[in-house]
């Protein structure tokens, strides 16, 4: 198990037993959700996917659809026209509150139900069917696969959505909603009834975090300024009347839904999603809030955290075939090294290792590790700092490589990684790269059956 998955699995195992919160029941179809369901997924900017728990379950997207439909409307009409109909201020009220601006009738923001209904109505289309298909196609592009509607959830929402209809009529009367009320609300219900898996939401969140480019498919879904706008509204309004506390504690743009979905975006790092039906009083999944709070603290993800100037993390991946040590060798030894030197791999990293940088380094380790037995020299001489969570990830990855039959050397002037557990470190430490590379060659030579003298 890779360290990112291991971190998600550890959170899943530890938080699964929590019994706080209540499953939403004001939409009858949602009341049947299993409160024990709990899944997490993370997608990095490299398109790598990690997950833990119940990740195959389908559930309706509900309000998690709102930032993506908002992005669609802004892309189609421009920010000025959308802002004329929908504000961007936190309401400080519940998701289904009547929160309209005096004089204009504008809803407070596109993340509350009133604002989302208007946003849905703004998507240009020939008719209601065309409008929904544009929305479904947009959400599918964000997810990287075709998404469908859960018709049972849609019928349940349509049968019980009187409060949303009332909001729509109020806005129609105030002038902020221009379309037909019944058609608009039904389209909104269908939008909320699109079914997803938690991994779909992670890809969607990662697309926003990646400036509008889906990191899995490579397709540009929206332009980067639109992604920035959507993330900004999520940061200030996405968690309803808990948005201020969320931004203070977690510091990531996020959006929740009453089916138990929750996404968060770490710009230029990753998108993460959680599905857990029991909700707190603000309508946010209890386990999801706790999991993302802990991840933010563990990996220093808060938007206000200063990570320093970004530089390439992995600066060199080579072997002793191309860059041998300067140690004198006999002709027989040199012959062995010329033939087998690809089994001694050298990876150099630099800068501060936080989540994204460590994920890049782990990917390089996985991609370049030779077939076991092999020897890996990790040159950390130019690494200035390793975050606590990142050190745990890297240490676990190195331990896994050792368990697979490799031997590891770390070259660094100062110790940056602590041993895992109470036993000795599963690697050999050296003060400099030259000594570590020579050690790798010596270990390779010691395993060959050819004479070396």
Automatic annotation (TrEMBL):
The keyword Hydrolase applies. One of its GO terms (biological process) is L-glutamine catabolic process. Coiled coil: none annotated. GO terms for molecular function: glutaminase activity. Homotetramer. Belongs to the glutaminase family. HAMAP family: Glutaminase (MF_00313). This is Glutaminase.
């Amino acid at each position: 198990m890779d360290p990112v998955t291991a971190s998600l699995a550890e959170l899943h195992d530890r938080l699964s037993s929590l019994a706080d919160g209540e499953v939403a029941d004001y939409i009858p179809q949602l009341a049947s959700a299993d409160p024990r369901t709990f899944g997490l997924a993370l997608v990095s900017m490299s398109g790598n996917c990690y997950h833990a728990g119940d990740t195959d379950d389908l559930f309706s997207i509900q309000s998690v659809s709102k930032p993506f439909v908002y992005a669609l409307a802004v892309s189609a009409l421009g920010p000025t026209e959308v802002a004329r109909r929908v504000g961007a201020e936190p309401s400080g009220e519940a998701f289904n509150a009547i929160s309209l601006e005096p004089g204009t009738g504008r809803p407070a923001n596109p993340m509350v139900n009133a604002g989302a209904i208007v946003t849905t109505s703004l998507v240009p289309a020939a008719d209601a069917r065309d409008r929904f298909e544009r929305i479904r196609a947009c959400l599918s592009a964000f997810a990287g696969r075709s998404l469908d509607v859960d018709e049972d959830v849609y019928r349940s929402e349509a049968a019980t959505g009187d409060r949303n209809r009332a909001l729509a009529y109020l806005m129609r009367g105030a002038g902020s909603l221009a379309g037909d009320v019944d058609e608009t609300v039904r389209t909104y219900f269908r939008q909320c009834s699109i079914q997803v898996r938690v991994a779909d939401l992670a890809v969607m969140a990662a697309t926003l975090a990646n400036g509008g480019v889906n990191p899995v498919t490579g397709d540009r879904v929206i332009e980067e300024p639109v992604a920035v706008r959507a993330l900004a509204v999520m940061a200030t309004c996405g968690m309803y009347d808990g948005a201020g506390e969320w931004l203070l504690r977690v510091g990531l743009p996020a959006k929740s839904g009453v089916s138990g979905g929750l996404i968060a975006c770490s710009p230029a790092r990753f998108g993460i999603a959680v599905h857990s039906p029991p909700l707190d009083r603000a309508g946010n999944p209890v386990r999801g809030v706790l999991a993302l709070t802990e991840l933010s603290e563990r990996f220093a993800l808060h938007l206000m955290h200063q990570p320093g100037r970004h530089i390439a993390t992995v600066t060199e991946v080579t072997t002793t075939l191309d860059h041998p040590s300067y140690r004198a060798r006999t002709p027989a030894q040199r012959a062995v090294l010329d033939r087998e030197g690809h089994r001694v791999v050298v990876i150099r990293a630099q800068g501060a290792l936080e989540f994204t940088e460590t994920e890049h380094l782990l990917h390089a380790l996985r991609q370049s590790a030779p077939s076991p037995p092999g020897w890996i020299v990790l040159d950390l001489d130019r690494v200035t700092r390793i975050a606590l969570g990142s050190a745990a990830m890297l240490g676990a990855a190195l331990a896994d490589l050792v368990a697979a039959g490799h031997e590891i050397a770390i070259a660094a002037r100062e110790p940056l990684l602590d041993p895992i557990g109470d036993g000795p470190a599963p690697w050999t430490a050296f003060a400099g790269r030259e000594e570590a590379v020579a050690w790798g060659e010596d270990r390779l030579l010691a395993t060959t059956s050819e004479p070396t003298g």
